[in-house]
Amino acid sequence: MRNWYVVTGGPSAGKTMLIEALAGRGMHVEHESARIVIDRWMTAGKTIQEIRADEAVFQDEVYQHKLLREQRLDPKELIFFDRGMQDTYAYNRLFGVPITADMQEAMDGAEYKKVFLLEPFAYEEDYARTESSAQRDELFGLLREAYERSHVPVVTVPAFVTKEERIDYLFQYLRDVEGLPMQA
Hints:
By secondary structure, the chain is of the alpha/beta class. The protein has helices at residues 15-24, 33-43, 48-51, 55-72, 87-95, 101-109, 133-149, 163-176, and strands spanning 4-9, 28-30, 79-82, 114-118, 154-157. It is 50% helix and 12% strand. It is globular, with a radius of gyration of 16 Å. It starts with a strand and ends in an 8-residue tail after the last helix.
């Protein structure tokens, strides 16, 4: 079993905030592949509309980035991912993109200790988001389905009033349930 955890949820769920908080505590984090792909293309002069014009091509590029990254990482190292392989299933389903046999095999073979599925916060737009708030809500269910069908334990992280409460909740869970050295 890999010593890896996933933080996931729909757009604007607070994933990046939690990943940054984990990094701030010295944890190894891997940032969201979609953002890395988007940022690379935007640096090359493309707009978000151009990048996402062909959703199948975009989703495949994100999938390939995740696949290559996980192949190079040490499965024994404690790592927190901003989205995991199974997010491919959810996004492809949302956008009607076929899931190839190779993709399904990679998703089924991607083992994580746990996935933390974040309940949605109020939707906030940013430069890389094209999904609507309705799609964000649909993604929440698709993400749960994706990880459960791959037999990855899912822990739902509630949408607290403040982001700090969510950080505290996750850190307490990691310390008390997972036995990780998280500071109070």
